[in-house]
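Hey, resending since the last one bounced:
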Amino acid sequence: MITKEMTIAEVLTRSPQTAVVFLSAGMDCLECPSARAESIEDAAEAHGVDVEALIHQLNRLAVH
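The structure tokens again:
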């Protein structure tokens, strides 16, 4: 299960297919240092994205 406390890099390592969700939300810096350091919640806030909706979409595509 993907949580808002995880980093983008963690999610992409576990479920690379979720990249499309990040990209469609305008979060296109998937390889930048902050993708490895900040939480999804922090990244969503910085991009003006609803974190709960993002997490829901990520979990729909993720491999558990």
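The mean pLDDT is 93.

Sorry for the duplicate.
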